[in-house]
Amino acid sequence: MDPQQKIYNENIQALPQREAQLNPEIVKYQLETSELIENIRMLLLNEIFVRNEDTGVITRQTSPYGKRLMNEEGAQEVLTIIRPHLDKNIILSNLTDHEIEATLIELRSKTAILLQRKYIDYEIDKEKLPTIMTTMINPIWSTLKRAANETTLNYLGKTQQLHEIRRHDDSDDKGFMQKFMNPFKK
After folding, report:
1. Contact predicate 81/111, CB 8 Å
2. Using a CB cutoff of 8 Å and minimum separation of 24, what contacts does 108-112 make?
3. For residue 149, which of 10, 62, 157, 171 sits 20 to 30 Å off, Cα-Cα?
4. CA 68, 73, 76, 78 torsion: positive or negative?
5. Alpha-carbon gap, residue 92 to 38, rounded angstroms
6. pTM for this one?
7. d(CA 121, CA 118)
8. Dist. CA 153–CA 163, nearest whole Å
9. How much is the pLDDT for 93?
10. Tell me: the pLDDT tens digits for 71-108?
11. Nearest to residue 145, comparing CAs of 84, 96, 108?
12. CA–CA distance, 130 with 153 (Å, rounded to integer)
């Protein structure tokens, strides 16, 4: 393949990512974890969002398919345990692979012991324990991986640089256009 064609292809593939990096709202969304925590809660309680066709109002309801993995008390306890691990301060930290692995091992162990002790109180079917653990651990693993070796910090640094470059380029373009449109005005 022609070297220039290769560069062109790489740039075309990177365009959507670059646009995302330049949008501060996307960065803010990527650091916000409340929606993720709410999704975990809904999975544990087998809830879905339903839109009323007449009013357009969206409500949360129990899904007619399947059954909840635990009761509200259990879901709240699980969220209390995982919330500190799904925090933007974690995402913005610098964790080694060893630290991530140690955190996950400790979290799995503590959570498994809690759920096995409280499965009656939380109305948990013991056969669903692996599903519950996966529902909890996978998002935490993904969040911790975002902190591995400053991944998110590096991303945000590049985002800020691109945003500043683009803002500078836009201001240069405006100055050029003003001079072009009225060359006699100083």
Report:
1. yes
2. 108/133, 108/137, 110/81, 111/78, 111/81, 111/136
3. 10
4. negative
5. 21
6. 0.65
7. 5
8. 15
9. 79
10. 999 999 999 999 988 888 887 778 888 998 999 999 99
11. 96
12. 33
| Structure-block tokens of residue 176 | 């050029």
> What residues does 50 pair with on adjacent strands?
59
Domain extents for the chain? 70-162
Question: What is the crossing angle of helices 129-146 and 151-181, to 10°?
Answer: 50
Distance (Å, whole) CA 45 – CA 75: 7
Q: Write out the E strands in 17-141.
A: 47-51, 58-62
Any idea of the CA torsion for 121, 43, 17, 4, to the nearest 10 degrees? Answer: 110
Q: How many residues does the chain have?
A: 186
């670059």: which residue's tokens?
18
The yes-or-no verdict on residue 6 having pLDDT over 60 is no
Q: In the prediction, which pLDDT does 19 show?
A: 47
Q: How far is CA 7 from CA 1, 22, 28, 166, 184, in A?
A: 10, 21, 30, 21, 41
Strands 58-62 and 47-51: antiparallel
Both tokens assigned to 53: 């066709």
Output 7 or 47, whichever has higher pLDDT: 47
